[in-house]
Amino acid sequence: xxxxxxxxxxxxxxxxxxxxxxxxxxxxxxxxxxxxxxxxxxxxxxxxxxxxxxxxxxxxxxxxxxxxxxxxxxxxxxxxxxxxxxxxxxxxxxxxxxxxxxxxxxxxxxxxxxxxxxxxxxxxxxxxxxxxxxxxxxxxxxxxxxxxxxxxxxxxxxxxxxxxxxxxxxxxxxxxxxxxxxxxxxxxxxxxxxxxxxxxxxxxxxxxxxxxxxxxxxxxxxxxxxxxxxxxxxxxxxxxxxxxxxxxxxxxxxxxxxxxxxxxxxxxxxxxxxxxxxxxxxxxxxxxxxxxxxxxxxxxxxxxxxxxxxxxxxxxxxxxxxxxxxxxxxxxxxxxxxxxxxxxxxxxxxxxxxxxxxxxxxxxxxxxxxxxxxxxxxxxxxxxxxxxxxxxxxxxxxxxxxxxx
Length: 405
Ligand code: SAJ
Known about the structure:
- The chain is an alpha/beta fold.
- The chain has two domains: 8-207, NAD(P)-binding Rossmann-like Domain (Rossmann fold), CATH 3.40.50; 253-399, 3-Layer(aba) Sandwich (Rossmann fold).
- The protein is 42% helix and 12% strand.
- The strands form two sheets. It has an eight-stranded mixed beta sheet with strand order 3-2-1-4-5-6-7-8, sandwiched between helices. A four-stranded parallel beta sheet has the order 10-9-11-12, sandwiched between helices.
- Strand 9, helix 12 and strand 10 form a beta-alpha-beta unit.
- The mean pLDDT is 96.
- It binds ligand SAJ.
- Ligand SAJ binds at residues 154-157, 210, 213, 217, 250-251, 253, 256-258, 260-261, 321-322.
């Protein structure tokens, strides 16, 4: 057990802040974790966690029991301050940096010469400079006396504890000495390479990584729409095109979900609407793909009823935002299921999500039972379980994610 004053204050104990706090504490650095939610603070101080992430439970339990991680609703004096709070959206897809601003305001009275202030939250370009101005306006005597930098994370949910250590990081200070200071800090915990740049480039780098993926998925989704009209199997087409040594097309799906790829491109589009034509269009295409899938289901139901004289039973296979996870955040499959249920004309509809036991809105059905009973089977998410299903040939199958290819 250790009682020293904290070296690090971590503001925001969510999906990234808590694993990062636990990682830093593991190297016997004292971390004072801050969250506005008292329940989160209480759970962590018991050595428990409030989010699902492999190996995080053990890391937090150890950090708390050894006295290197303490959670609180208020920051205290430290040497390094990390801002890892959400940057959500206001109306019209404009990023809301008020959490970053409020976290910064809370630590401004605590800052002293020599301190290091780092933002990790995904942020619009110029946020770090804006926070620098905020700090220096309230504490002009600190001008040039503290270090300010931006360092985004790029971990994959489900593999956070590994990727936090081994992924490369991009670190951009407001000046060269801030960059150096931040690199020295991260060097203590990170084994990946640390790449130096300025704050604006580091901010843009995070946004560009996820926008690039969104644009590539939009290309695959656009191909799927063209192929549907042209009567070409898009999965076969992409497999063949990817035989080219320098072509690597991603997979179409029922849209793009999650909290990053479907969101971050708007940070660029909202500030640079005239210039970000492809980035903006990719968002539109990927959103449209979900709408298109829902319409396809509707058309298939009507055609079935006209042909057979009775209403079809429909199985909607998958609700998660991507394969083999239980996370429904910003899920296009969930959006499609909701739309199909809204348009329902009393047909029986089986909702399937093998990674979730119960859901407060959707009544879930076992995936094998649903495919046996349904007349129309709609594959929304390419979960592994679905790939081994033996489907009766009299079923109508709408495969939006490449299960039967
Ligand atoms: N998707 C497709 N086709 C594909 C690949 C993905 O339709 O070929 C869809 C998925 O089904 C899903 C969405 O895109 O709905 C996003 O999935 P993802 O696996 O690309 O990304 P996330 O949101 O789980 O995590 C990403 C990660 N980025 C990449 O894999 C490039 C992670 O590295 C980032 O740190 C994270 O976003 C983040 O926090 O920004």
